[in-house]
Amino acid sequence: VIFTANDDSWGTFTCAGPKTLTFEASVTNTVSHFNVNGHAGNLVTIISSISGTAATISCPTTVSCTYVSLKDNTASGASFYYDPNSVIVSNVTGWSAAPGAMVGMLGVLG
Predict the structure, then answer these.
(1) Residue-wise pLDDT tens digits, 42-85
(2) Is the confidence at residue 26, as pLDDT, over 60?
(3) Parallel, antiparallel, or unpaired for β 55-59 and 28-37?
(4) 3-class SS at 7?
(5) DSSP string, 61-74
(6) Which of 13, 31, 95, 97 is the most exposed place for a label (fewest CB within 10 A)?
(7) How many whole angstroms separate alpha carbon 47 and alpha carbon 49?
């Protein structure tokens, strides 16, 4: 799924893995509810359209995602959480490990 500047604001967004969500680099995407959950062996990948340049996801409500792979994105608004089954690749800000969760860092891939 590819989001462009024309798709920069929605109500509720829901996605289950495996999928790759590509957000346009340097654009703020605003959503009222962001429900993204992969499952074991099938992560939802959330990336920017340009490697090394972050896209921003803004949500006024708390976001808790499971089984996601995050690269080149910034979360803003309310709290954004990922679970211990998630992977932080690189250039990710505004996301936090779910309270009490341990998450492995892979570092930069590629």
Answers:
(1) 999 999 999 999 999 999 999 999 999 999 999 999 999 999 99
(2) yes
(3) parallel
(4) helix
(5) S-EEEBSEEEEEEE
(6) 97
(7) 7
pTM (two decimals) = 0.83
List, in sequence order, every residue forming a beta bridge with 33; answer none if it has no partner.
Answer: 12
- What are the φ/ψ torsions at residue 18 (nearest 5 degrees)? -85, 135
Residues contacting 62, CB < 8 A, separation 6+: 78, 79, 80, 81
Cα separations (Å) of 75 from 40, 42, 110? Answer: 24, 22, 23
Mean pLDDT of 9-23: 85
Cα–Cα nearest to 54, from 82, 79, 75? 75
Name the range with the highest mean pLDDT among 13-17, 25-29, 89-93: 89-93
